[in-house]
Amino acid sequence: MSQAIIDLFKAYVIPNYTRFPLVLDHGEGSRVWDTEGTRYLDFFPGWGCGLIGHCPPRVVEAVREQVGKLIHVPNTWYIAAQGELGQALSERTGWGGQCFFCNSGTEANEAAIKIARLNGKPGRYKIVTTFNSFHGRTFGALSATGQPKYHEGLEPLLAGFSYVPFGNLEATAAAIDDETCALMVEPIQGEGGINLPPAGYLEGLRALADKHKLILIFDEVQTGMGRTGKWFAHQHFGVPPDVVTLAKALGGGVAVGGLIATPAAAEKLKPGTHAATFGGNPIACRAALATIETIEADGLLDRAVAIGERFRQRFEALRGRCPLIQDVRVKGCMIGVELAVEGKPIVEECLKRRLLINVTHGTVMRLLPAMNLSDAELDEGCDILESVLLAHKA
Ligand SMILES: Cc1ncc(COP(=O)(O)O)c(C=O)c1O
């Protein structure tokens, strides 16, 4: 069964992903099953989209109901779900804001780049971002991504982007000139290795943006929707952006992206400047509303903090016994463990032991577990990781 499906991919699907030979069939919470019926524990559900686990019941129910009622209408008309989702997100920022909806993180960042450029008119179009950032694969977001390996062969990129080290305010200030319109930063770098911002960094970015009248964009595609224990990671630092971009967990696994912008920044996005045919469709919006309801009704913001602490304790305790562990970086359900060796063999060994994890930047083991992971599941996975790391021969 699995091999037949893998053969279909070989024949008919462009091989632009590195895939493990595992064909998944169904999931529930932090568990997934393959087509042979083998069960796996998933510490990386949906590459960050499964923040409330696989097939969260309220999302499943909301989508089922909506799909039988109205699947898609264009943004020529009003629908209740999009307005309600806009309100739900805006109210949770603490600084208000209006929303634009699309289908993915890269699209959300494209819209943010347009807002920045439209606000920079006349004359200002440059955007300062950071090395090791990840903002997406479409050309604007790709140009914003400060990692040359993703640019190779695709140049020329969109003009106007410059990159400075994450956490370095002096370098950021030095990169701003008369043509700069925005700063764009992930509050915690995700793909870049779960890099936490140094004290005062986000506050300093806000001050620079205010001083130079720049749009401050926080890319919260990975950190948003409660993953770090607050709705948005920037809320830990009390630093409001002008634009925050979202996707991944927003729809509880259903494809939806969007941004929230202050009314002053959003004002420039007028009819004709931007659009997405599927953006804010009824199914996506109902799924996102059910995701928010789940996080609140089940107390998952607090749970995310508790999960982070338990992971931290487990890895810090192991660190003393395992020289492979160089650093442990945790913010809620965003966990990075820097290893002294390449992480790929660790991922492969975990897969054999039926635990799904990720490695980013070669040596950073990245876990983005669901906020409703139980203590028993957490310990089960950590026991596997512990034995894999301790047994690993560099
Ligand atoms: C911070 C951040 N921004 C943007 C993106 C791109 O999102 P998508 O793959 O939905 O386009 C990602 C994806 O990993 C991300 O982590």
Secondary structure blueprint with pairings:
Elements: H1 2-12, E1 24-28, E2 31-34, E3 39-42, H2 57-67, H3 80-93, E4 98-102, H4 105-120, E5 126-130, H5 139-144, H6 148-151, E6 161-164, H7 169-175, E7 180-185, H8 201-212, E8 215-219, E9 243-246, E10 257-261, H9 263-266, H10 282-297, H11 300-319, E11 325-331, E12 334-339, H12 344-352, E13 355-356, E14 358-360, E15 364-367, H13 375-391
Helix pairs in contact: 2-10, 3-10, 11-13
The site of pyridoxal-5'-phosphate (PLP) has 14 residues, from helix 4.
Question: What does this protein look like?
Answer:
With 394 residues, this protein is an alpha/beta fold. The chain has two domains: 2-55 and 301-391, Aspartate Aminotransferase, domain 1, CATH 3.90.1150; 58-297, Type I PLP-dependent aspartate aminotransferase-like (Major domain) (Aspartate Aminotransferase, domain 2), CATH 3.40.640.10. Helices cover 37% and strands 18% of the residues. The strands form three sheets. It has a seven-stranded mixed sheet, sandwiched between helices. A four-stranded mixed sheet has the order 1-2-3-13. It is globular and about 60 Å long.
Give a quick rundown of the structure:
The protein has 394 residues and is α/β, with parallel strands linked by helices.
Q: What fraction, in percent, of the residue positions are helical?
A: 25-40%
What hetero molecules are bound to the protein chains? pyridoxal-5'-phosphate
- Mean pLDDT metric: 97
- Label the structural class: alpha/beta
Number of strands: 15
State the end-to-end CA separation: 35 Å
Full CATH superfamily name of the largest domain: Type I PLP-dependent aspartate aminotransferase-like (Major domain)
